[in-house]
């Protein structure tokens, strides 16, 4: 049942078996899995079907460095306080963590999960279905049996391989996609527009949650009581609620050892060089391929676990991308059309109409030039543009990226690498408050030498291998790359990957939740989402967090 929470009278007490806080990928997945087993679920969505300015404002916080650490994008930019959460804008790239990500690595401090890949595997298979990403097949040999196993013939060796793929969800908008299912579930109540303000522990030792205080607008509060509670508000909001609920324990919930909000991780992503390939286009795969179920798949370079250990670096991948399309000097109508579409969509996604218009004004001249390129090239490129527009914007399963042609054989090398866990990288409560009186967040993300070395040594390895195999060249300057990387980290963009802030660990001294996602020392409070990841590998987080959410639902159903 879906219900507008504004109709709940002030002071009401609502009861269920499980109260889920958050209506994003994690919260909706737990709710669906429990609904299938007939559990009485109350879900507080935190937002409505459309994101309202006042809801978005609840996500604002401070990103000013509190020490000599890098800054971070505004906190309301890469997440959505809305039904469906951030999946309302996600790209849909699905890729599981690798086996090595779960093990304790001597060269990556604080690494190691209290779970193995094999334990998570059955849930990843199910998560693939929830994300509509097809079969759980992430090697080219399995997913694309009629295609060459390598991305570039003759490239793969002991240190680097190109025989792995990533898969793309349509992308699934969890709110829209699963609303009918939740509406039809007789034991589920989704309270649309209900925000959790406080997790109330019992006064008798604080070992159990007694209730959640929630509201739809300031002053209009009600309570939700359940046997079990699941916090699923995203990687930044989960620690915020735990820290702000500090009436029984002044440190907040689960924070006896000061771990809540620490170990905040994301990924390092970007372009530091270009690859030219000296082999014919028939010898490599650049574009997306589709598997038997028409799911878009893409190849990538991956550094093997053996090479990671030998070089003492974190996990890393890279893929070939079209050259930069922002500079209209390419005179290519398809690229200009893609750039214009991307720019206007990005402007629309800014914090406000005003911010979007200001952002567009800053780029007035290049945008005008892109329009000119498009006008000149449109007649010749029209059939291709129409085909791309249909695949990219009008298909149910949309083309993830417009890549352009492989014929130039010159590509940007886009990397995505691990951000190693670091207790000094953290989110904490700031000194200002939101409209409900909740303390806003203060984020202080930190990077170490290992993070930089992972990127640089990975690029060096790639450059050497391209030369060794006579396949091509990586055009980059290692010294300049280090400077550019430092600059990039000083103006960091998380791309919505918010990991590690309530990390999973066997001992309460080392983390916030146990291997089942339960907050240490609180009997009936669980956390779902990427905040529980002890490490984040190179992989985009959603598939794994959905797998963990399914595993959590199975665990709760078993416990009940
Ligand atoms: C532009 C963009 C592209 C992305 N692309 C990818 C991609 O290709 N692949 C990938 O794996 N990931 C991607 N991501 C990240 C992905 O969107 C997140 O990993 C995922 O949405 C996290 O799911 P979640 O349920 O933990 O949090 P969210 O989806 O953010 O959901 C949190 C929910 O909690 C609710 N909430 C918050 N606070 C409260 C409160 N106090 N009370 C009640 N409810 C509350 C919110 O309203 C929301 O419904 C992308 C992110 C962005 C921004």
Task: Describe, in plain words, how this protein is organized in 3D.
This protein has 560 residues and is of the alpha/beta class. Among the domains are: 2-66 and 80-91 and 172-264 and 423-444 and 498-559, FAD/NAD(P)-binding domain; 326-399, no CATH class. Helix content is 30%, strand content 20%. It has 13 helices and 22 strands. The chain has helices at 25-35, 53-57, 117-130, 140-143, 174-184, 237-244, 305-311, 333-348, 353-362, 364-394, 449-468, 478-490, 542-559; strands spanning 2-4, 13-21, 41-44, 71-72, 93-94, 160-161, 165-168, 188-192, 195-201, 209-215, 221-231, 267-277, 289-290, 296-299, 301-303, 316-321, 410-418, 426-433, 439-444, 472-475, 491-492, 525-527. Strands 1, 2, 3, 8, 9, 10, 11 and 22 form an eight-stranded mixed sheet that branches. The chain has a six-stranded antiparallel sheet with strand order 6-15-16-17-12-20. A hairpin with a 7-residue loop joins β9 and β10. α1 packs parallel to α5. The longest helix is centred in the C-terminal third of the chain and has 31 residues, at 364-394. The radius of gyration is 24 Å and the shape is globular. The chain binds flavin-adenine dinucleotide.
What descriptors fit this protein?
six-stranded antiparallel beta sheet, binds flavin-adenine dinucleotide, 560 residues, FAD/NAD(P)-binding domain, 20% strand, eight-stranded mixed beta sheet, 22 strands
Examine the coordinates and then state which fold CATH places here, giving the name of the CATH topology of the domain at 2-66 and 80-91 and 172-264 and 423-444 and 498-559. FAD/NAD(P)-binding domain
Q: Note the beta-strand portion.
A: 15-25%
User: CATH superfamily of the domain at 2-66 and 80-91 and 172-264 and 423-444 and 498-559, please?
Assistant: FAD/NAD(P)-binding domain
What is the averaged pLDDT score?
94
Instruction: Give me the oligomer status.
Output: single chain
CATH architecture of the domain at 2-66 and 80-91 and 172-264 and 423-444 and 498-559: 3-Layer(bba) Sandwich
- Could you say which overall geometry the principal axes of the C-alpha atoms support? globular
Radius of gyration: 24 Å
Counting DSSP E segments of at least 2 residues, the number of strands comes to 22
H/I helix tally: 13
Low-confidence stretches: none
Largest sheet: 8 strands, mixed
Q: Estimate the helix proportion, in percent.
A: 25-40%
What is the straight-line distance between the termini? 22 Å
Bound compounds, please?
flavin-adenine dinucleotide
Coarse structural class:
alpha/beta
The CATH class designation of the domain at 2-66 and 80-91 and 172-264 and 423-444 and 498-559 is Alpha Beta
């Amino acid at each position: 049942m879906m219900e507008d929470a504004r109709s709940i009278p002030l002071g009401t007490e609502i009861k269920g078996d499980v109260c889920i806080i958050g209506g994003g990928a994690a919260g909706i997945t737990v709710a669906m899995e429990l609904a299938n087993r007939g559990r009485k679920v109350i879900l507080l969505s935190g937002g409505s079907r459309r994101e309202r300015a006042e809801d978005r404002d609840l996500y604002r916080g401070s990103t000013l460095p509190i020490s000599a650490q890098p800054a971070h994008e505004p906190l309301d930019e890469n997440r959505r306080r809305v039904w469906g959460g951030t999946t309302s804008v996600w790209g849909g790239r699905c890729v599981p963590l690798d086996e090595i990500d779960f093990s304790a690595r001597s060269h990556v401090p604080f690494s190691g999960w209290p779970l193995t890949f094999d334990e998570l595997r059955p849930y990843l298979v199910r998560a693939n279905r929830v994300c509509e990403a097809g079969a759980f097949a992430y090697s080219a040999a399995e997913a694309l049996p009629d295609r060459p196993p390598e991305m570039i013939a003759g490239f793969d060796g002991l240190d680097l391989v190109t025989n792995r793929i990533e898969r793309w969800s349509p992308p699934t908008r969890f709110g829209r996609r699963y609303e009918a299912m939740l509406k039809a579930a007789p034991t589920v109540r989704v309270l649309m527009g209900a925000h959790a303000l406080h997790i109330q522990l019992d006064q008798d030792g604080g070992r159990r949650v007694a209730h959640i205080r929630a509201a739809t607008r300031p002053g209009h509060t009600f309570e939700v009581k359940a046997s079990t509670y699941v916090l699923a508000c995203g990687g930044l909001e989960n620690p915020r609620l735990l820290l702000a609920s500090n009436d029984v324990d002044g440190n907040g919930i689960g924070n006896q050892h000061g771990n809540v909000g620490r170990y905040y991780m994301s990924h390092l992503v970007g372009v530091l060089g270009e690859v030219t390939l000296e082999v014919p286009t028939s010898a490599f795969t650049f574009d997306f391929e589709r598997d038997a179920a028409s799911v878009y798949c893409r190849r990538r370079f991956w550094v093997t676990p053996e090479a990671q250990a030998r070089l003492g670096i974190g996990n890393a991948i890279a893929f070939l991308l079209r050259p930069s399309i922002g500079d209209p000097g390419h005179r290519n109508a398809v690229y200009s059309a893609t750039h214009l579409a991307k720019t206007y969509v990005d402007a629309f996604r800014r914090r406000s109409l005003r911010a979007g218009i200001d952002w567009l004004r800053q780029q007035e001249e290049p945008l005008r030039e892109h329009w000119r390129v498009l006008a000149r090239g449109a007649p010749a490129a029209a059939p291709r543009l129409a085909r791309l527009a249909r695949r990219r914007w009008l298909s149910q399963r949309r083309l993830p990226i417009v890549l352009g042609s492989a014929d130039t054989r010159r590509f940007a090398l886009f990397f995505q690498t691990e951000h190693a866990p670091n207790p000094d990288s953290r989110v904490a409560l700031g000194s200002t408050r939101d409209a409900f009186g909740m303390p806003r967040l203060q984020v202080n993300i930190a990077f170490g030498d290992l993070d930089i070395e992972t990127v640089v040594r990975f690029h060096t390895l790639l450059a050497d291998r391209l030369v060794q195999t006579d396949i091509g060249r990586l055009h980059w300057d290692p010294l300049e790359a280090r400077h550019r990387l430092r600059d990039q980290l000083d103006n960091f963009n998380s791309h919505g990957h918010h990991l590690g802030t309530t990390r999973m660990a066997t001992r309460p001294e080392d983390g916030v939740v146990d291997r089942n996602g339960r907050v240490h020392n609180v009997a009936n409070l669980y956390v779902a989402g990427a905040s529980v990841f002890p490490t984040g590998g190179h992989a985009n987080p959603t598939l794994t967090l959905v797998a963990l959410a399914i595993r959590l639902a199975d665990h709760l159903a078993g416990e009940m």
